[in-house]
Amino acid sequence: MPDSASASVSTALSRLIARAIEGNGGWLPFDRYMALALYAPGLGYYANTSRKFGRMPSSGSDFVTAPELSPLFARALARQLGQALTACGSAELWEFGAGSGALAAQLLGELGDRVQRYTIVDLSGALRSRQRERLAPHLAKVRWADALPETMQGVIVGNEVLDAMPVQLLHFDGARWHERGVAEERGAFVWRDRPTALRPPTTDGVERAYEPGTTTELHAQSEAFVATLADRLIRGAAFFIDYGFPEAEYYHVQRSGGTLMCHRAHRADTDPLADVGTKDITAHVDFTAVALAAQQAGFDVIGYTSQARFLMSCGILEMLQGADLQTTAHAQKLLTEHEMGELFKVLALAKGCDFVPLGFSDGDRRHTL
Prior knowledge:
By secondary structure, this protein is an alpha/beta fold. 33% of the residues lie in helices and 24% in strands. The protein is built from 12 helices and 16 strands. The chain starts with a helix and ends in an 18-residue tail after the last strand.
């Protein structure tokens, strides 16, 4: 999107959020602010026409995801999804938050006739249009939905979808917890805190000790999302790939600033109140919270590990044999600890199908959740 268009969208979105703040008594909880900033129709970051995904800033993109980085990501993932389709007796894949459509195109190419229907659930009309162009060779199999059906079956995949779900912000002043929200002051958005009964998770009922000034997140929306999936999925499995931590690491005393982050032009910043609508806003995933919500709603938690371990168990190293230097370099970013290999995790859930997923055959970490 040209700079003038970005400015226009940001101005219109700022006005929309300002009206929401005014209508809510001058203060908006951060999760509601984040929802508008990302998903307000036609204006939010994921709902406007700016380019989001690409390898380099020169493309006009803001960040790169694994499918854009290397097709070997989808090749390896396809092995796991193929096993799950067979185990669950299904020929349908569901993808949440399909982005540019790169992963869908690659998975459909890899799995061929094993997939008879590929359903994309995506709220963004702008992204749907790009997905439709990219998936032109597969349109006979692909359909789009903007909401979950009452019942569903099949295998679900979500790559970097949980991190884009709005989070609640908590701030500790040394004496009590406050919920952090957004107000407007002299035409700019500013932080405002209000006392709250909300608390970070406890360990066996014991509250952790937090330093004054600590800020962290709660993930009520992602927990509700997986619980709804469990309620509506009759039989199937789900695989979520995202950056995040188990609870003990997420709420570690040294992570006193939380995990909230913005991304634009392949650079990160920590100010979600500036230039609203022109950059991504994300928070790392609390995989313990997601796994517990899924389990309590009826899912079996069948695997949890790092992205590197998952991809290696799915055969990515064999796929790299004989690869050229560029292919190897891009794939290594998926695997190395200081890139995506350790920060990204994979969580596997199942309902009504009993199988041992191959992607967790080495290095399953469910005991850390």
